[in-house]
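Q: How would the structure tokens look for this protein?
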Amino acid sequence: QVQLVESGGGLVQAGGSLRLSCAASGRTFGSSAMGWFRQYPGKERELVAAISSGGSTVYPNSVKGRFTISRDNAQNTVYLQMNSLKPEDTAVYYCAASRGSYAYRAPSFDYWGQGTQVTVSS
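A: Here is the predicted structure in token form.
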């Protein structure tokens, strides 16, 4: 079983930055794809960023150039650096882990964190 614990959410003004962290338990972190998703009220979770075990990354156009996902396998931690934040980035952000080495679609992720709120004020 893998447990994921997110931290780093909060309130920030538009144009500001936040860094989310996700600490993962389990011995297979290094071989797992990791992802960040967000969810708006009443909507399905959508991909924000994903990183394969080899370090390949995937971003949707909505965050490309503003958000950066990275991983530290020694610390079993994945990060999401969010810059130039916009009010439309306001959502609950979830960390996710896959049993596979490459994934970016929500159904391909097997473990989820509890979520952390990010609020961007205008």
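The mean pLDDT is 96.

The CA atoms of residues 2 and 27 lie 9 Å apart.

Upvote if useful.
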